[in-house]
From TrEMBL, chains A, B:
Region feature Disordered, mapped onto this chain: 176-195
Key words of the record: DNA-binding, Transcription, Transcription regulation
GO MF term list: DNA-binding transcription factor activity; transcription cis-regulatory region binding
Organism listed in the record: Miniimonas arenae
Pfam families: LacI, Peripla_BP_3
InterPro entries registered for this protein in UniProt: HTH_LacI, LacI/GalR-like_sensor, Lambda_DNA-bd_dom_sf, Peripla_BP_I
All copies of domain HTH lacI-type, residue ranges: 1-53
PROSITE patterns: HTH_LACI_1, HTH_LACI_2
Low complexity biased stretches: 178-190
Name the record gives this protein: LacI family transcriptional regulator
PANTHER family with a match to the protein in the record: HTH-TYPE TRANSCRIPTIONAL REGULATOR GALS, LACI-RELATED TRANSCRIPTIONAL REPRESSOR
Superkingdom of the organism of origin: Bacteria
SMART domains from the UniProt entry: HTH_LACI (SM00354)
DNA sequence: ATGAAAGCGCTAACAT
DNA sequence: ATGTTAGCGCTTTCAT
C-alpha cells in the first residue's frame, strides 16, 4: 500500500480510502491511484486488515467429518445463507473425537473467526461447559449442553415417534430399530430417537419390543450393513423377522437397505424401511427411501440468526431451540 | 500479552518465549508467566501472529459444492493428510459457477492461506490463465489448464475405457453412456470419459453406438434419474433397450439405478451398471454398484506434496499428473 | 480532499 | 536469561 502511495504521489491513507471505496477522494486522485494499483498488482492484505479491524468477516462451521453427506448438505446451506449476509464460511473438521473437537474449538484456533457453529457430536457435557464464551458460539447437535450456550437441535423424540407411528399405521407390527439403544440416560441422538420409537408403540397401545432394538458401535453405513445382516440371520433362525425397520439415520438406513437386499427381503413388500435426516440421495436409492425430514433449512436459519445477533453484541438469555420434524414418505413405506 | 508481561513483571518478549515454548527462559520465570497466563485467561491472537509471520499455517481447498459426496470424501482425505504435516485445512465453496470460483480464488480472499488446492470445475481455460501465481496453487479436476500450474487429474479416458471394456467383456453389447457427450473438443470429464467409452468399443472391434450416449444438463442424481427415465421410455418404444450402462459419475449412476428400478429393469440381470468415482456409499446401494476407482488417495497425496513443495519455495517446472485408475467390481456388473 | 501519527498483537534481531 | 527496538499492513483519529 505504501508502494502504491509513493508511486501515485499520495498518502497511504488516500490509497486506503480509494481501495475501500470511501468518499472524499477527488475523482482524478481516485483514478490515478486505481491505475497504480492495477500496475503494481496491489491487493489488500486481509490479515493486516483483520488485525486492525479486530474481526475477520469469517464464520467457522466445525463438523465431525467432511465425508458424511449430512454435514455436506448442512455446510452448503450455511455457506449460502451466510454469503447472503456478507459473511464467509470456512468449514473445519473435528474428527468426531473429543480431542479433535476440543482442539478445533480451542480459542487459539477460533480467534480467526468472528463466530463458530459447532456440531457437538463427541463432546461431553463437561467439555462443552469448559469452553470460554468470549467468542460467539452456537451449538448444534443432539447432546445435552450447558444452559449458557445457544443450541439448536432436531426434534429427535418427535421425529422418531412420527416415523414409528407411520410404520405402525401402515400395519407393521414388528418394527425394529436399527441403531437403537436400550433404555438409559437420554444423552444423544440414538437414545432420544429410541425414546420416540417407544413412545409411538405406547401411543398405539403396544409394548415396545425391546428385543427388536439393534445397537451399533457407530452409525456408518458399512457397520449397519454388517450388524443388520447378522441380526437378520439370527431373527430368521428364530422365525422372528421384523416387518419394518426404523433406522436411526439415513446412513444406517442405507446399510439396512443393503442388508435386506442381501437377505432376499423386499422393500416394502416384506419389510418397510424409514430413516432419519432426509439426505438428498435416499430418494434415489431403490425403491426410494422414506425418511424423517429434520428441517435443516430451519435449523440453519435459526443457528445463523442466533450467531449473527451474538456477533452483533446481543446479551439476550441463551436460547435452546428444537426444529420441527415431518415425514418424507416414499415407496419404502408404501 | 503486555498485560501478562506487566502482571508477571517481565517483558512481552519473555511472555512470547514462554507461550511458544522457546528455550532460554528460566524455569521459575516460565512458571510465573504460565500462572499469570492462566489467571488472566490469555490466548494468543493468531491474526497478529500471522501478520508478523507472513504465513498462516492454513491451506484452503476450494470445491464447487459442499454437498457433493465426492468432495466430502476428498476434503476428509486432505484434512487428515495436511493435519499430519502440521497444517490446517479450511474448505471453501465456489458454487460451481465461474463467478463463484473466480471470487473464491481472488487474491484478496486467498491471501489468508499459505496455499490453495482448487478444483476447477466451472472455470474456463482463460479464467485460470488469468490467475496470478504469487500464491502456491495446485489445480484439481478434469479441465485442460495452463501449463504453468501444477495439476493433478484422474485417468478419465483410461478409467472410462476400463469400465466400458469391463461391460463388453461380460457380454454386454448395447452399452449406453449416461452423461456422455457426442464427439467434440475434449475439455471436461464428460468429454474425456466419452472418449474412453469409444476407445473400448473400438478396441473390441465395435463401432461406438453414438445413439446410446445420453447427455445431461448437469450431473446431479435427480437429473440423471429424470433424463434416463425418459431415455428408457423412448428406447423401449423402439424396442432398443441397452443391456448395460456406464454412468459418467457415481451420482449419475445413482440416478440411473433409480430410473432402471422405476422401469422394472433388474440390475444386473437385465442391465449391467457401472459408475465412476467409487464413492463409499455405492457399495451399499442394491445390488452393490460397480465403479471406477479414481485413486483419490493418490490424488490427495500428490496434490499435497506439490503444494507443500511450492510453499517451501520450489521452482521446479510445473507438473501435470494423472492418477491411476482401476475397476471396483461389484454385483451390478456380475 | 488529503495527510501524519499512532497502534492493533505479535516476534526477529539485536542488545545487555 | 531477559529486555529493547522496530515493524508486519492496515485504519482510526485528528489535523490541515
Amino acid at each position: 500500500m505504501s508502494d502504491v502511495a509513493r508511486v501515485a504521489g499520495v498518502s497511504v491513507m488516500t490509497v486506503s480510502n480509494v481501495v475501500n471505496g470511501r468518499p472524499r477522494v477527488s475523482a482524478e486522485t481516485r483514478l490515478r491511484v486505481l491505475e497504480v494499483v492495477a500496475d503494481l498488482g496491489y491487493e489488500v492484505n486481509l490479515t493486516a486488515k483483520r488485525l486492525r479491524a479486530g474481526r475477520t468477516g469469517t464464520v467457522a462451521l466445525v463438523v465431525p467429518r467432511f465425508d458424511h453427506p449430512y454435514f455436506g448438505e448442512l455446510a452448503g446451506r450455511f455457506a449460502t445463507l451466510l454469503g447472503e449476509k456478507g459473511l464467509h464460511l470456512a468449514v473445519e473438521q473435528s474428527g468426531a473425537s473429543r480431542e479433535g473437537e476440543l482442539s478445533a474449538v480451542s480459542h487459539a484456533r477460533l480467534h480467526m473467526y468472528d463466530g463458530v457453529i459447532l456440531s457437538v457430536v463427541g463432546l461431553h457435557y463437561d467439555d462443552v461447559d469448559r469452553l470460554r464464551t468470549d467468542l460467539p458460539i452456537v451449538l448444534l447437535g443432539e447432546q445435552v449442553v450447558p444452559e449458557r450456550f445457544d443450541h439448536v437441535m432436531m426434534a429427535n423424540v418427535e421425529g422418531a415417534r412420527l416415523a414409528t407411528a407411520h410404520l405402525l399405521e401402515r400395519g407393521s407390527r414388528r418394527v425394529a430399530m436399527a441403531g437403537g439403544t436400550p433404555s438409559g440416560p437420554s444423552t444423544g441422538a440414538s437414545e432420544l430417537r429410541s425414546e420416540g420409537w417407544r413412545a409411538a408403540h405406547r401411543d398405539a397401545g403396544l409394548e415396545p419390543p425391546e428385543d427388536l432394538l439393534v445397537p451399533m458401535p457407530d452409525l456408518e453405513a458399512a457397520t449397519a450393513h454388517r450388524v443388520v445382516a447378522e441380526a437378520l440371520a439370527r431373527a430368521r433362525e428364530r422365525g422372528a423377522l421384523p416387518d419394518a425397520v426404523f433406522a436411526v439415520t439415513d446412513q444406517v438406513s442405507l446399510g439396512v437397505r443393503a442388508a435386506l437386499h442381501d437377505a432376499g427381503l423386499r422393500v416394502p413388500q416384506d419389510v418397510r424401511l424409514i430413516g432419519f435426516d432426509d439426505l438428498g440421495l435416499v430418494q434415489h436409492v431403490p425403491p426410494g427411501l422414506s425418511s424423517v425430514d429434520p428441517h435443516n433449512g430451519w435449523i440453519v436459519e435459526r443457528a445463523t440468526d442466533l450467531l449473527l445477533s451474538r456477533i452483533a453484541g446481543s446479551t439476550e438469555p441463551p436460547q435452546h431451540l428444537v426444529a420441527p420434524a415431518s415425514i418424507a414418505a416414499r415407496a419404502s413405506t408404501a
